[in-house]
């Protein structure tokens, strides 16, 4: 699964730490998610989308391996 | 979603406070660099206590009283409790990704521990194997602790760098 969380976060001038605090997760989680090392749960994906003001489908998309 | 069945974060510190001295004492005791204090010699109730080489024939094996030094029992108990507390307490920012790292570390530790055991089965014999079994009571949790904290440390270093 691909995502463009990093781009959207940077566009809002948020650091990983800021985003992590707003969502209530660790900074490591945001980092792992942005580097495609971790696929978030539905709840976490919805929270990220809410904070970044986007739809989940705009942030996350399937790739060839899925 | 957070991992269930974890202790609150404050128990982690208590775990470390118990783990470090009991690990040092356990290693010193098993390597015979210190001896168990004699005031811990006492009569205990044994459910099962088969005779060892050199014991008299006909010694009762079940439901009997026997004398033992409780130092190793106490240290083993402290090690089990403290490794559980350190390993199974929430980290400061426990979340679903940390839960994944925790589970993967436990899997890794289980595989490495199994490999270590298979190696010892074929290459260590006699009383040496008994010693390995004693260490093996704690190696799974200790391997897990090392691996989990290493992975956590790496993840925090990486995320700090990639702000």
TrEMBL record, chain A:
<protein>
    <submittedName>
        <fullName>Helix-turn-helix transcriptional regulator</fullName>
    </submittedName>
</protein>
<keyword id="KW-0238">DNA-binding</keyword>
<dbReference type="InterPro" id="IPR010982">
    <property type="entry name" value="Lambda_DNA-bd_dom_sf"/>
</dbReference>
<dbReference type="Pfam" id="PF01381">
    <property type="entry name" value="HTH_3"/>
</dbReference>
<dbReference type="InterPro" id="IPR001387">
    <property type="entry name" value="Cro/C1-type_HTH"/>
</dbReference>
<feature type="domain" description="HTH cro/C1-type">
    <location>
        <begin position="5"/>
        <end position="59"/>
    </location>
</feature>
């Amino acid at each position: 699964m691909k995502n463009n969380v990093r781009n959207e976060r940077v566009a809002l001038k948020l650091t990983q730490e800021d985003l992590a605090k707003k969502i209530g997760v660790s900074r490591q989680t945001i980092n792992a998610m942005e580097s495609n090392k971790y696929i978030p749960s539905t709840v976490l994906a919805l929270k990220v989308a809410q904070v970044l003001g986007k739809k989940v489908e705009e942030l996350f998309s399937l790739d060839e391996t899925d | 979603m957070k991992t269930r069945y974890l202790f609150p974060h404050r128990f982690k510190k208590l775990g470390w406070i118990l783990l470090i001295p009991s690990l040092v004492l356990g290693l010193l005791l098993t390597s015979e660099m210190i001896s168990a204090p004699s005031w811990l010699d006492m009569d205990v109730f044994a459910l099962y206590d088969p005779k060892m080489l050199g014991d008299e024939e006909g010694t009762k094996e079940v439901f009997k009283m026997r004398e033992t030094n409780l130092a190793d029992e106490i240290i083993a108990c402290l090690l089990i409790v403290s490794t559980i507390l350190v390993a199974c307490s929430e980290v400061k920012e426990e979340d679903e990704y940390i839960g994944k790292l925790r589970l993967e570390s436990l899997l890794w530790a289980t595989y490495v521990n199994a490999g270590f055991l298979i190696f010892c089965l074929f290459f260590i014999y006699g009383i040496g194997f008994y010693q390995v079994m004693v260490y093996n009571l704690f190696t799974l949790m200790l391997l897990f602790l090392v691996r989990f904290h290493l992975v956590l440390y790496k993840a925090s270093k990486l995320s700090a760098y990639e702000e």
